[in-house]
């Protein structure tokens, strides 16, 4: 494998158009159409919130009917979540989908809608409908991935997209990831919206497998504020434009599958990292590695507890090595038989807690300096077993309050 | 029953002494002795954190050996939690207990130690030992309940104590509650320390029953920041100085038992309310009533989810009726089959969400005005069943960050 690490300008079979219909203020772009015009497959996972937004309901329904590769379209708006809008919200969503379907001459069930923004508000459907023919028209297909990533932003401070070219069986293939999210980030589907596109041909089962495996180590392993949204969606779309097919079940394609899977998951992980580092008000990215756990689940429980602790997060914001808060958050995971004497904690490879106590040569000044860095690696060894897990979180600052107290104003 | 609502100056059989040994800065009181010199019973519940502080371990051990009413003592320090201090921390705790036991001429297992403050730091045992004879000496027993409540404060902005006199079978009996807590407040044992004392005679089983029933509706139903401490302890102590005995199992004492239980639980609830209203940086107390749930557990799940949502809490801080966040937090409780169309939400009896949508005559200005009050009643009707539950939380403000970023400095 050669990782070309090139920024992709385009992937064959996908085209983007973007506009502003006035959902967001100041004429900022807020509506995007992704036309997957080459026959494509789509797999996805969605929020487990019991009050899912209308577009989540529509996407789930569409997925059930998706039997073979076909022309698909994603219509994505920001500024309004179309969540908690009841039957009317569902009708709004379907009207927009219908309009896209009609403009592209495809079936409505091939149109996947996504919304992000304020909950409980209705979509300005009439305004949106007026723009859809333009979005679908050929002359507007020149938008870039950056434009798409920008159009789906809400409180995000920068657009989030990552692309990769890799070589499989001698041919260049493309993987592209786009995401939005900086608040309402909880370890259970921790993003508002994320999309990964590729021109590598995959079965629906393999695409679904990739989505599930990726979400586990990326979007389900990050925390900004412990809130879970009504609109969380992560979908992957593949066409066959690279001429390369990979499969988890074919022996001859196994090597390519492994390479592809690794890179696909890496894109998910990097998108998750971008989301956390753009966490509302975040000044620091904190990567947490838990080792010495009895099981992967146990490692995750500890990671989630530490990631979600406002007291740990404010200590990181202050650059204050109040290490007791980290130990307390580990204990708050309520693991039976946890033994303090076996716990080691390091910050950027500097041992701070050794066998449950301050390390012998511990220096508060050194710990303080390490905690003042913008990226911090927190390693927690539970000393119980061989399982590991990873989590990512950010610090909790004044700006989190500012952003969320002023969100609608 | 006549509720005399008098502030109690003293309860026979209990005496308090308080001093400052320099654990907290600026000579603030940080060590208190509560001598339960009349034969007493004690019951308690403690943190479920897997790394409990040394005093929690000692209290639990002592409880096992507590067979009959005897002279008991509580030694409580603030400023240092004696948590995550390993074997040495346990020895520190036992040395302090030994010293109290020796000064009062009682057994060590009759001394119950409590600590609250910074985790991972060692107790200044030598300094504490020097003060214990003074604390135990007769001339220092003049401290008030306010003094005790003040000595156990950490980030609390005011001392928390409530007292009640009620009449049972023609005699006046006393109940007194003292608590500390304003951060690290999670719905699972949501307090650092709370004590309820009474001069009504009770069996150990009844005292334990009162503690468990009280904690359920009070300290386990409040949330400030979703953090759970290493030191959470709630204990109740009863002697027989009022000459009144109540029992849950005796027919003749049933009426008195019911009156007493109601008042005892009320003290717990009011202490919990004081803790939430003193939540770190809190500007508003939010009382949440969940009705129309299928079960009490379901109501609590919704209450916990709404109470813990930073986005709901920042909206309340801003006085911004961003009601979608409340619905989203309800949905985040992941209740199967939850129907948005059946959900009603009121703020101080003003219907804001009707059948899942903005109420017909909803006025944003009116909602904003109601959300600007210092005490807010949020009613959530799930429209599914007959069960109810209550929760309390506070808003999330800049000062939460300030207090916790600067805690050790």
Describe, in plain words, how this protein is organized in 3D.
- With 409 residues, chain A is α+β, with helices and mostly antiparallel strands.
- Chain A has two domains: 14-277, L-amino peptidase D-ALA esterase/amidase; 285-405, Ubiquitin-like (UB roll) (Roll).
- Chain A is built from eleven helices and 15 strands.
- In chain A, strands 1, 2, 3, 4, 5, 6, 7 and 9 form an eight-stranded mixed sheet that branches.
- In chain A, a hairpin with a 2-residue loop joins strand 12 and strand 13.
- In chain A, helix 2 (86-104) runs parallel beside helix 3 (125-136) and helix 5 packs across helix 6.
- The radius of gyration of chain A is 22 Å and the shape is globular.
- The termini of chain A are far apart.
- At the A-B interface, helix 2, helix 8, helix 9, strand 13 and helix 11 of A face helix 2, helix 8, helix 9, strand 13 and helix 11 of B.
């Amino acid at each position: 494998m050669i990782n070309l690490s090139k920024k992709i300008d385009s992937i064959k079979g996908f085209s983007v158009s973007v506009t502003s219909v006035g959902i967001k203020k100041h004429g900022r772009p807020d509506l995007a159409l992704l036309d997957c015009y080459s026959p494509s497959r789509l797999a996805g996972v969605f929020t487990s919130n019991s009050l899912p937004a209308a577009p989540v309901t529509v996407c789930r329904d569409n997925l059930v009917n998706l039997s073979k590769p076909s022309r698909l379209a994603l219509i994505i708006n920001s500024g309004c979540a179309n969540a908690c809008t009841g039957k009317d919200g569902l009708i709004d969503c379907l009207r927009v989908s219908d309009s896209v379907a009609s403009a592209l001459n495809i079936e409505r069930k091939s149109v996947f809608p996504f919304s992000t923004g304020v909950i409980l508000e209705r979509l300005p459907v009439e305004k949106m409908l007026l723009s859809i023919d333009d979005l679908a028209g050929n002359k507007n297909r020149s938008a870039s991935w950056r434009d798409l990533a920008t159009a789906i932003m809400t409180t995000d401070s920068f657009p989030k997209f990552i692309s990769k070219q890799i070589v499989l069986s001698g041919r260049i293939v493309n993987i592209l990831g786009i995401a939005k999210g900086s608040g309402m980030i909880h370890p259970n589907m921790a993003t508002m919206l994320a999309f990964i596109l590729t021109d590598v041909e995959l079965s629906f089962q393999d695409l679904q497998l990739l989505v599930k495996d990726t979400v586990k180590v990326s979007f389900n392993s990050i925390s900004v504020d412990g809130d879970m949204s009504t609109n969380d969606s992560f979908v992957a779309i593949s066409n066959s434009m690279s001429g390369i097919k990979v499969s988890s079940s074919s022996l001859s394609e196994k090597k390519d599958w492994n390479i592809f899977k690794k890179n696909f998951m890496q894109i998910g992980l990097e998108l998750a990292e971008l989301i956390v580092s753009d966490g509302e008000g975040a000044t620091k990215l904190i990567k947490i590695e838990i080792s010495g756990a009895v099981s992967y689940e146990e490692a995750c429980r500890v990671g989630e507890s530490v990631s979600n602790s406002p007291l740990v997060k404010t200590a990181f914001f202050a650059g204050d090595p109040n290490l007791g808060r980290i130990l307390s958050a580990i204990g708050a995971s309520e693991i039976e038989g946890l033994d303090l004497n076996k716990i080691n904690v390091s910050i950027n490879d500097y041992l701070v807690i050794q066998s449950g106590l301050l390390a012998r040569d511990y220096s508060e000044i050194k710990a303080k300096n390490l905690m003042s860095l913008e990226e911090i690696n927190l390693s927690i060894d539970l000393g119980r077993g061989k399982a590991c897990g990873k989590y990512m979180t950010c610090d909790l600052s004044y700006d989190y309050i500012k952003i969320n107290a002023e969100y609608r104003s």
